[in-house]
Structure formats: structure tokens, C-alpha cells
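*** C-alpha cells ***
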Amino acid sequence: MNEYEMMEDFCYSLSNDKDRNRLLNAISGRGAFRRFKDEIIYMGIRDEWFEFRDKCYEKVAIEWCKDNGIDYI
């Protein structure tokens, strides 16, 4: 999973249709990362994004450990 996929998953995790569509529009095309960052700050959901992203990275790390026979805590 890459960070763009994480942003897209975050968009779909939002229960408010207006917010979801606003962010989905922000991540289409060139400049997606910048627009996404600007929008989450404007919408006041920056902390929620970082929490969501951290959980995604944790899942990726756990899967990598499992795939490579490495114990994790």
C-alpha cells in the first residue's frame, strides 16, 4: 500500500458525503498530495488523517514482518 492509496482509503472512511467528495476531488490529478494536505488542514481533520495513516503503516509493517518470519510487538 502506498500513501496515495492511504489517502484514498481515508477519503472513503469519512461518513460525511460532502467531506468525502471534497477530499476525493482534491486527490485527483497533479498536485494531489498538496491539495489533500491543504484540505485536511482547512477541514480540521489533520490529526485524524495522521492517526489513520499511522495505522496503515503499522498494518504494512506487521504484514512485512509476517511475510519475512519476523516477530513483532
About this structure: The mean pLDDT is 96. The helical segments are 3-13, 17-26, 32-43, 46-67. Residues 25 and 32 are 9 Å apart (CA to CA).
